[in-house]
C-alpha cells in the first residue's frame, strides 16, 4: 500500500527533472538518478511483498475451506431423518462445491475493504498537495462509486441467495435422476426430466445473468472510472482557473491510476466476494444448525449381559402427525434369542429397528441397549470398494473368520466388475459385513426376501440360526415359514403390537390373525439340494461398481497380521485430457453462446473501447506539449500549462471520455451475456447427452463424478470464467494500447520491450505446460470427494449403526487431502509465475526510468511523463494480463470436461423413422430367439442363446436361483444394453424401433422402487397425464389409498428425498400403481413384491389377474408362491432356459429344477404350492377343453 503511493511521487520528481532539464546541473541529475533508483526499488519490493502476502492469504483460505468441508461432512453423518426432509443431497453437494469456494476467494479480497478507503484518503492528500481543491471533484466520483458498490453488494447478496436455492433444486433433481436412471429410462421420462431441469436451469441462469451484469459494471468501472476522475479534475481546474504544470498532470494521472486498481477493481471485487460469502456462511450455518440424531439410547459397554429392552415406547417420524409411527411397544430380547417381527406393509417394522438404533427418538417410554450393534438394512448399502473391504468394514482381517462368514452367507464366486451387482448380492454382502463384525446385537431388516428359497434357507439356517445362535437377533421378515424357529414372534399393525409370544402360543396353523396368515410349519426342513443350480451368471461378488482396474476380489486377502482399520475404498481418478486446450474447445464455448457475427461485433467493440482509451492518453500528452510550447513562446522560459484557449482540447477530451465509458459498459455487458448463455447451452447439451448414454455408463461412474460436472464445473462456467475472460480481454487490449502508445511516443522503448516479450512468452508456455495438467488433476481429485459424500449420505444409517462415523470421516479427510495437494500445487505454481512476471516487468520500469534521464535532452516532458506513467501501468497490467490468460486456459479445463460429456457414446435413438402402429402392441406376443446378453462388450454373457415364444395374454413366471439372469432378461427386453439375437413383440423386432417406442409400450414394476422429491401425486404422475380419480383408483388397487389418505396433505404431501418417509414395501406399491396407470398390453414385474407381506402379495396378485386379464404378464420373483398359479413358468439357470411348462407339469418331474426349488421351501409349503399348481392346471385343462369343443361345434355348424 505504502509503495503504491510512493511510486507516483518519485515519478513526479523524474518528470520535473526533464521538465526543467539543465545539462550543466550535475547535482540535479544525480538527484534524479536517486529518484529513479528509488522507483526501481519500490517496484521490485512491491512485486516480492505483494505475492508473499497473497501466497499466505490463499493458504488461509484453503485451510478455511477444508475445515468447513470437514464440518459439513461430519454434520451430514449426524443428520436426523427429519432434518433430511429439510435438506437433500443436491444442497449438500452444492455447499461443498460452490459455497465453500467463497472462502478461497474472499480471503484474497477481504483486506481491500479497509485498504481501499485508506488509500483513497492518502491519494486525496497527495492530490491536494499537487492541484489543490480540484482533486475533490475527481475524488467525489470515487466516493459516489464506493456508495454505489455498497448498494450493489446488497444486490449481490440477494442474487446469490436466490441463485443458490435454484442451484440446490437443480443439483438435487440431477442427483435423483442419476440414482434412479434405470427407472427413468424404462419409464421413458428422459424428455420430461430434461424439460424439468431446463426450467430449473432457466430460473438459475436468470439470477446468474443479473449478477453477471453487476460484475460487468464493476469491470467497466475499472476500465473507465479513472479517466472520468482525471477528466472531472481537469475540468474543475479550468473552472477554478488553476495553473497546472506538465509534471503535475502526470503525477495526477499516475495517482489516479494507482487508486484505480484498489478503488475500481479490488474494492468492488471485495464487496462482491464478501456479499456472496455472507450468504454462503449463512447457508452453511443453517445447514449446521439442522437437527441431529439424538443419542437417546447410547450403546452401553457390554461388560455384562447384552440386552435389548423396550418399554412402553411411543414415537413418530413426523412430530406434527397425530398418529404415532410406533405406539406402546414393550419387549425384551436376551442373548441366544431370535425375535421375529412380522406385519403388513407400513406396520412400523423398520421403524422398530430404527428405534433400537436410536434413529427414532421416543416421545414416551425408553429403549435400553447394552452391547455392540450390527445392522442389515432393508435396502442394502455398499460403498465403492472391493468385496473384502465391504465385508471387513474397517475391522482387522482374520482369515478363518473371513472364510466362515463367506460360507455362512453363501458367497463363493467372483464376478466381472462390469456387471451390476444384483439386489440379492448386495444383501448378502451387507449380511456378511454384519456377521463379520462379531457384534452382540443383530438387527436384520427383511434380509431373506431378495434371494431365492434355497439361498434364503441357507442364510437362515447357516447364518441366522448357526452363526448368530449366541447373539441377540431381531429379524424383520415376510418369510413366515421361518417363524417356528423364533424364540419370540411379534406381530405389528399400525405401529402397535397386536400379539407377542412364542410360535406355540399363536392360533392354529393356517389361521388368519390380524392380517398375518400363519401357515403350517413343518417338522423337518430339507437341506439345500446338493445338485442345485450354480450361481455364476450374476452373483454379487464383485468390486462394488466403481471405475478401476479389474482385480481378484475374494482371493485378494491380506496377510493375517495386516490391520485394516482404515476402510479401503476403490475410487480411481477419472481419466482426463492431456496437452493444451484445443482451439475447438474455445470455438465450441464461444459459439454456444452467440452466433459468429455477435462475437465479431464484440471484438470490434473491444477495439473501439481501447482506441478511445488510448486516444485520451495521447490527447492529454499533446495538450501538455502544446500548452508548454505556447507558454515558452509568450513568457520565455517555463513550461506552465495555460488554461486559456483550451476549449478545443476539452471538447475532444470530453468526447473521448464519453466514448470510453459507453464502449466500456457495452463490451462488459455483452461479454457476460454471451458467456453466460454459453454456460446455459453447454449445460443443456451435457444434460441431454447424459440422458442418452447407456445404463452401463452409470454403473462405471460414481454419482459424485457425474455431479462434479453439473455442480463444480458448471459453477466455474457460470461465475468465474466469464469474469476471467472479460478481465483478460480488457487487460489484453489495454496492454496492446499501452505498448503501442509507448513505442509511438518514444520508439526506443521497443528495445527493452522485444526481449521482455520473448521472455514472457517462453515463461508463459513453460508455466502452462504444468498448470494445465495440475488443474486437470485438481478437477479429477474433486470427484472422489463428491462420490464419497453421496455414498455416505445413502448409507448414513448403516454407518451410524456400526459406529463408523470416525472412520468414514477419516476417509473423507483423505479424499480432501488428495484434492488439497493438487490445489496447493496449483496455487504455488500460479504464485511463482506471477512473481516472475512482476519481477521481469519491474526490470522494464527500471530501464525506462533510467533511460528517460539519460535521454532527457532528446525528448520532451509530455513524452517522458506519458511513457513513465504508462510504464507503471504496464508493470501492473502485463503480469495481470498474462496471469488472466493462463487462468482462463486453466478454467477452460472445466469447459473441456463439460464438452467431453456432450460427446459420450449414446444408446440407440429414441425414435426411428419407422414407427410402430399407434395400437402396438395389441396382442402382447413376445418372441425371444437365440438371445444372448451382456452388460458390456468385454463382460461375460449373462443370458445365453435364450429362445422362447410367449403367447398373447399369457401369465408367465420367471424363476431361478440367485444370479440366474432373471433381471437380465428385463434389461434385454428394455434394451438397457443391446442384446444379441432377436426379440419380437407382436411380430415387430425390438431392434427395429426406437427405444422410446419400445419402452413406453411395455409397463414394468422394477426391482428397486425409485421415488423423487416432491408430492405423492408428482411421483405417481410426474407429468400430469391422469386425473385425481384415476390416481386414487390406482392407489386403492394396491392397498395404499388408506395410508395416503392418512398423510397430512394426502396426495399433496411432500415426500422426502428418495421417498425415505415411506417404507420399502410402500415404495414398491407406488411402482405398482404407476404400472396400473400406464395401461399397456405387456406388464413385467421384477421381484416387485419382495418387500411386502404375503397377504398384500396375494391381494396384488388378485388385482393383477383382474386388471391385466387381457394382457401378457411376466412375473420375475424369488417367491414361488407368487408365480405358482401362472399359466407357464420359465426356469433359468446360469443365463440359460432350463425348463418351460405349466407349474404342475414341472412338479410332476421330481428331478426338474423347478421341483427342487419347491422342495427347498419346506415340506408344508411345498405341499401347498403343489396343490395350488394342481388346481390351476385342472382349471386350465377345463378351459382348453371348452374352447376346443366350442371350436368343433362351430366347424360342424358351418359344414
Automatic annotation (TrEMBL):
Sequence ranges assigned to domain ABC transporter in this UniProt record: 308-519, 926-1159
Residue stretches spanning the membrane: 32-55, 112-131, 137-156, 216-236, 594-615, 652-676, 724-744, 832-855, 861-882
One Gene Ontology term from the biological process aspect of the record: lipid transport
Lipid bilayer topology: Multi-pass membrane protein
Catalysed transformations (reactions): an S-substituted glutathione(in) + ATP + H2O = an S-substituted glutathione(out) + ADP + phosphate + H(+); 3',5'-cyclic GMP(in) + ATP + H2O = 3',5'-cyclic GMP(out) + ADP + phosphate + H(+); cholate(in) + glutathione(in) + ATP + H2O = cholate(out) + glutathione(out) + ADP + phosphate + H(+); prostaglandin E1(in) + ATP + H2O = prostaglandin E1(out) + ADP + phosphate + H(+)
CDD domains: ABC_6TM_MRP4_D1_like, ABCC_MRP_domain1, ABCC_MRP_domain2
Compositionally biased spans, kind Low complexity: 536-550
Entry keyword set: ATP-binding, Cell membrane, Lipid transport, Membrane, Nucleotide-binding, Repeat, Translocase, Transmembrane, Transmembrane helix, Transport
Gene3D superfamilies in the record: ABC transporter type 1, transmembrane domain, P-loop containing nucleotide triphosphate hydrolases
Major location (coarse): membrane
GO cellular component terms listed in the entry, alphabetical order: apical plasma membrane; basolateral plasma membrane
InterPro entries listed in its UniProt record: AAA+_ATPase (IPR003593), ABC1_TM_dom (IPR011527), ABC1_TM_sf (IPR036640), ABC_transporter-like_ATP-bd (IPR003439), ABC_transporter-like_CS (IPR017871), ABC_transporter_C-like (IPR050173), ABCC4_TMD1 (IPR030240), P-loop_NTPase (IPR027417)
Alphabetized GO MF terms: ABC-type glutathione S-conjugate transporter activity; ABC-type xenobiotic transporter activity; ATP binding; ATP hydrolysis activity
Entry EC number(s): 7.6.2.2, 7.6.2.3
Region (Disordered): 521-557
Chain ranges of the ABC transmembrane type-1 domain: 1-261, 600-890
Complexes and interactors: Interacts (via PDZ-binding motif) with SNX27 (via PDZ domain); this interaction accelerates MRP4 internalization.
Protein name: Multidrug resistance-associated protein 4
Amino acid at each position: 500500500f505504502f509503495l503504491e503511493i510512493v511510486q507516483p511521487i518519485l515519478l513526479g520528481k523524474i518528470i520535473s527533472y526533464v521538465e526543467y532539464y539543465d545539462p550543466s546541473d550535475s547535482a540535479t541529475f544525480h538527484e534524479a538518478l536517486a529518484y529513479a533508483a528509488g522507483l526501481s526499488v519500490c517496484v521490485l519490493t512491491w512485486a516480492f511483498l505483494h505475492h508473499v502476502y497473497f501466497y499466505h492469504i490463499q493458504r488461509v483460505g484453503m485451510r478455511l475451506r477444508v475445515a468447513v468441508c470437514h464440518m459439513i461432512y461430519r454434520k451430514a453423518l449426524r443428520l436426523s431423518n427429519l432434518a433430511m426432509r429439510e435438506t437433500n443431497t443436491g444442497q449438500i453437494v452444492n455447499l461443498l462445491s460452490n459455497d465453500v469456494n467463497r472462502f478461497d476467494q474472499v480471503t484474497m479480497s477481504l483486506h481491500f475493504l479497509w485498504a481501499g478507503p485508506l488509500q483513497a484518503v492518502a491519494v486525496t492528500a497527495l492530490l491536494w498537495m499537487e492541484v489543490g481543491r480540484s482533486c475533490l471533484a475527481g475524488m467525489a466520483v470515487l466516493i459516489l462509486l464506493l456508495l454505489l458498490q455498497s448498494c450493489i453488494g446488497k444486490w449481490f447478496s440477494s442474487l446469490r441467495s436466490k441463485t443458490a436455492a435454484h442451484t440446490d433444486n437443480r443439483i438435487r433433481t440431477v442427483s435423483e435422476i442419476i440414482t434412479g436412471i434405470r427407472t427413468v429410462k424404462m419409464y421413458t421420462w428422459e424428455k420430461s426430466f430434461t424439460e424439468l431441469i431446463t426450467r430449473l436451469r432457466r430460473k438459475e441462469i436468470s439470477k446468474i445473468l443479473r449478477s453477471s451484469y453487476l460484475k460487468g459494471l464493476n469491470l467497466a468501472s475499472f476500465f473507465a472510472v479513472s479517466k472520468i476522475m482525471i477528466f472531472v479534475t481537469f475540468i474543475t481546474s479550468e473552472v477554478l482557473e488553476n495553473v497546472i504544470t506538465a509534471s503535475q498532470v502526470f503525477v495526477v494521472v499516475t495517482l489516479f491510476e494507482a487508486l484505480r486498481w484498489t478503488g475500481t477493481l479490488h474494492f468492488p471485487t471485495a464487496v462482491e466476494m464478501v456479499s456472496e460469502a455472507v450468504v454462503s456462511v449463512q447457508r452453511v450455518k443453517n445447514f449446521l444448525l439442522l437437527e441431529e440424531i439424538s443419542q437417546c439410547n447410547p450403546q452401553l459397554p457390554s461388560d455384562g449381559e447384552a440386552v435389548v429392552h423396550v418399554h412402553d415406547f411411543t414415537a413418530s417420524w413426523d412430530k406434527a402427525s397425530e398418529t404415532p409411527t410406533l405406539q406402546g411397544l414393550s419387549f425384551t430380547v436376551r442373548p441366544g434369542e431370535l425375535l421375529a417381527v412380522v406385519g403388513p406393509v407400513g406396520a412400523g417394522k423398520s421403524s422398530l429397528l430404527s428405534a433400537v438404533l436410536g434413529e427414532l427418538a421416543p416421545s414416551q417410554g425408553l429403549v435400553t441397549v447394552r452391547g455392540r450393534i450390527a445392522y442389515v438394512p432393508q435396502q442394502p448399502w455398499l460403498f465403492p470398494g472391493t468385496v473384502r473391504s465391504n465385508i471387513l468394514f474397517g475391522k482387522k482381517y482374520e482369515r478363518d473368520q473371513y472364510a466362515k462368514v463367506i460360507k455362512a452367507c453363501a458367497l463363493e464366486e467372483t464376478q466381472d466388475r462390469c456387471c451390476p451387482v444384483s439386489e440379492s448380492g448386495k444383501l448378502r454382502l451387507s449380511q456378511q459385513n454384519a456377521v463379520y463384525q462379531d457384534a452382540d446385537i443383530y438387527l436384520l431388516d427383511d434380509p431373506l426376501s431378495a434371494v431365492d428359497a434355497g439361498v434364503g434357507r441357507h442364510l437362515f439356517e447357516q447364518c441366522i440360526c448357526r452363526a448368530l445362535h449366541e447373539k441377540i437377533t431381531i429379524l424383520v421378515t415376510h418369510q413366515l415359514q421361518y417363524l417356528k424357529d423364533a424364540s419370540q414372534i411379534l406381530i405389528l399393525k399400525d405401529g402397535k403390537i397386536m400379539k407377542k409370544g412364542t410360535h406355540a402360543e399363536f392360533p392354529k396353523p393356517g389361521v388368519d390373525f390380524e392380517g398375518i396368515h400363519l401357515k403350517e410349519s413343518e417338522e423337518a426342513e430339507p437341506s439345500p439340494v446338493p445338485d442345485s443350480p450354480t450361481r455364476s451368471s450374476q452373483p454379487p461378488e464383485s468390486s462394488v461398481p466403481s471405475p478401476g482396474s479389474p482385480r481378484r476380489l475374494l482371493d485378494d486377502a491380506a496377510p493375517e497380521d495386516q490391520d485394516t482399520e482404515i476402510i479401503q475404498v476403490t475410487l480411481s481418478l477419472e481419466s482426463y485430457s492431456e496437452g493444451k486446450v484445443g482451439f475447438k474447445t474455445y470455438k465450441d464455448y464461444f459459439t454456444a453462446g452467440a452466433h459468429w457475427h455477435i462475437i465479431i461485433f464484440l471484438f470490434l467493440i473491444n477495439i473501439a473501447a481501447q482506441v478511445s482509451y488510448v486516444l485520451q492518453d495521447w490527447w492529454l500528452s499533446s495538450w501538455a506539449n502544446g500548452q508548454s510550447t505556447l507558454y515558452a513562446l509568450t513568457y520565455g522560459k517555463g513550461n506552465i500549462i495555460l488554461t486559456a484557449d483550451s476549449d478545443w482540447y476539452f471538447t475532444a477530451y470530453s468526447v473521448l471520455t464519453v466514448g470510453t465509458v459507453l464502449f466500456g459498459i457495452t463490451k462488459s455487458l455483452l461479454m457476460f451475456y454471451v458467456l453466460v448463455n454459453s454456460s446455459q447451452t453447454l449445460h443443456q447439451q451435457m444434460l441431454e447427452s447424459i440422458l442418452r448414454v447407456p445404463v452401463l455408463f452409470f454403473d462405471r461412474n460414481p454419482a459424485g463424478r457425474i455431479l462434479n460436472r453439473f455442480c463444480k464445473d458448471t459453477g466455474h462456467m457460470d461465475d468465474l470464467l466469464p469474469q476471467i475472460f472479460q478481465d483478460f480481454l480488457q487487460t489484453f487490449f489495454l496492454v496492446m494500447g499501452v505498448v503501442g502508445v509507448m513505442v509511438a511516443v518514444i520508439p526506443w522503448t521497443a528495445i527493452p520491450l522485444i526481449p521482455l516479450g520473448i521472455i514472457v512468452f517462453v515463461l508463459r508456455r513453460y508455466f502452462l505446460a504444468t498448470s494445465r495438467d495440475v488443474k486437470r488433476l485438481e478437477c479429477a481429485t474433486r470427484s472422489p470427494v463428491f462420490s464419497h459424500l453421496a455414498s455416505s449420505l445413502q448409507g448414513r444409517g448403516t454407518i451410524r449403526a456400526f459406529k463408523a462415523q470416525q472412520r468414514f470421516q477419516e476417509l473423507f479427510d483423505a479424499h480432501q487431502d488428495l484434492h488439497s495437494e493438487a490445489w496447493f500445487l496449483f496455487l504455488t505454481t500460479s504464485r511463482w509465475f506471477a512473481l516472475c512476471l512482476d519481477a521481469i516487468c519491474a526490470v522494464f520500469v527500471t530501464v525506462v526510468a533510467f533511460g528517460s534521464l539519460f535521454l532527457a535532452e532528446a525528448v520532451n516532458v509530455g513524452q517522458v511523463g506519458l511513457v513513465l506513467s504508462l510504464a507503471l501501468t504496464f508493470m501492473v497490467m502485463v503480469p495481470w494480463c498474462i496471469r488472466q490468460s493462463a487462468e482462463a486456459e486453466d478454467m477452460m479445463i472445466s469447459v473441456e470436461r463439460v464438452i467431453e460429456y456432450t460427446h459420450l457414446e449414446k444408446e440407440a435413438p429414441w425414435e426411428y423413422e419407422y414407427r410402430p402402429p399407434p395400437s402396438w402392441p395389441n396382442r402382447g406376443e413376445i418372441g425371444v430367439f437365440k438371445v444372448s446378453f451382456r452388460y458390456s462388450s468385454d463382460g461375460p454373457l449373462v443370458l445365453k442363446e435364450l429362445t422362447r415364444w410367449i403367447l398373447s395374454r399369457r401369465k408367465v413366471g420367471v424363476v431361478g436361483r440367485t444370479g440366474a439372469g432373471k433381471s437380465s432378461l428385463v434389461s434385454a427386453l428394455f434394451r438397457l444394453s443391446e442384446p444379441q439375437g432377436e426379440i419380437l413383440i407382436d411380430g415387430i423386432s425390438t431392434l427395429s424401433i426406437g427405444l422410446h417406442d419400445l419402452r413406453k409400450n411395455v409397463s414394468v414394476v422394477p426391482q428397486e422402487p425409485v421415488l423423487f422429491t416432491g408430492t405423492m401425486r408428482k411421483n405417481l404422475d410426474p407429468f400430469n397425464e391422469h386425473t385425481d380419480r384415476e390416481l386414487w383408483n390406482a392407489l386403492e388397487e394396491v392397498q395404499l389409498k388408506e395410508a395416503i389418505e392418512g398423510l397430512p396433505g394426502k396426495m399433496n404431501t411432500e415426500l422426502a428425498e428418495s421417498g425415505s418417509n415411506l417404507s420399502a414395501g410402500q415404495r414398491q406399491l407406488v411402482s405398482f400403481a404407476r404400472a396400473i396407470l400406464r395401461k399397456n398390453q405387456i406388464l413385467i414385474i421384477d421381484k416387485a413384491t419382495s418387500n411386502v407381506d404375503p397377504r398384500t402379495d396375494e391381494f396384488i396378485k388378485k388385482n393383477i389377474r383382474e386388471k391385466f386379464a387381457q394382457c401378457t404378464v411376466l412375473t420375475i420373483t424369488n417367491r414361488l408362491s407368487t408365480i405358482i398359479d401362472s399359466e407357464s413358468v420359465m426356469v433359468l439357470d446360469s443365463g440359460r432356459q432350463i425348463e418351460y411348462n405349466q407349474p404342475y407339469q414341472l412338479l410332476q418331474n421330481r428331478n426338474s429344477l423347478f421341483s427342487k426349488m419347491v422342495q427347498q421351501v419346506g415340506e408344508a409349503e411345498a405341499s401347498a404350492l403343489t396343490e395350488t399348481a394342481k388346481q390351476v392346471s385342472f382349471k386350465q385343462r377345463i378351459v382348453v377343453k371348452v374352447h376346443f369343443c366350442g371350436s368343433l361345434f362351430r366347424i360342424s355348424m358351418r359344414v
